[in-house]
Write a structure and sequence with these properties.
By secondary structure, the protein is α/β, with parallel strands linked by helices. The protein contains nine helices and eleven strands. It is globular, with a radius of gyration of 18 Å. It comes from candidate division WS6 bacterium GW2011_GWC1_33_20.
């Protein structure tokens, strides 16, 4: 288990445990794509890609081109957090679950949400509930289904999805550095510096879960390669490679 490091700066984390150390010794079958826990296509089950990553890793940026080209479709999850209207968050980004009633305890509220929205998996994260409604999972779409989920969700869904005849393929999107993670959290304007650091430390302390549960890693670099190709474009092609491999 990784040792918990107390209150280092993002720059210090980049020295102590650079993000590239997660994938640099793994095999790569495509640029910026690294095999962590190999998995073969199971023809008896429908494939579903579980896309996860640290704050600021660029999950949405990597996914969006495949949604636009109909090579994949996004499974819409549910959340109780407020919509980020100031950030132009689309209304269809989530199924927006109701607020907790004054007459409900927290435990009652969580149980009611599971029943009302038929959540097959849920997590109470930073005071907000996130979950996967059964109807979202079963809804037809064009292209391979892709579900954005945190690392805890991947651990749960790796066990649950095969029960519904789905084969989960988990992909962790990694940024260049911890400094990039911190800047992305702070740049959202939803957290102050102390809160942003706490989110950063949470991402850092989740590394072991990524390493133990992700099938693949995509290094979504902001740096162009030696041929001048944009790092994001390479990451999009890496995800496209996986989509074609398992579709």
């Amino acid at each position: 288990m990784l040792e918990k490091i107390e209150k280092p700066s993002p720059a210090e984390l980049d020295i102590i445990y650079p993000i590239k150390s997660i994938y640099e010794n793994l095999e790569s079958e495509y640029p910026n794509l690294y095999t962590n826990i190999g998995v073969k296509k199971d023809i008896s089950k429908a494939p579903i890609i579980l896309l996860t990553g640290m704050s600021g890793s660029g999950k949405d940026s990597v996914l969006e081109p495949l949604l636009e080209s109909s090579e994949a479709h996004h499974i819409v999850t549910a959340t109780s957090r407020p919509r980020r209207i100031a950030d132009n968050e689309p209304e269809g980004a989530y199924i927006w679950m109701r607020d907790q009633l004054e007459s409900e305890t927290r435990g009652e509220y969580l149980e009611y949400l599971k029943e009302e929205y038929r959540l097959i998996e849920s997590d109470d994260h930073y005071g907000n509930v996130y979950g996967l409604p059964f109807m979202s999972l079963m809804k037809d779409g064009v292209g391979i289904p892709i579900l954005r989920v945190d690392i805890n969700g991947i651990i749960n869904l790796n066990k649950l999805l095969p029960l519904y005849r789905f084969q989960p393929i988990s992909v962790g999107v990694l940024p260049d550095s911890w400094t990039q993670v911190y800047d992305a959290i702070l740049g959202r304007g939803c957290e102050d510096e102390d809160e942003a650091k706490e989110r950063l430390y949470e991402d850092f302390n989740n590394i072991e879960m990524y390493v133990k549960n992700a099938n693949y890693f995509i290094h979504n670099s902001r740096v162009s390669d030696i041929d001048g190709c944009c790092g994001l474009d390479i990451s999009v092609e890496a995800l496209r490679f996986l989509v074609k491999k398992f579709a």
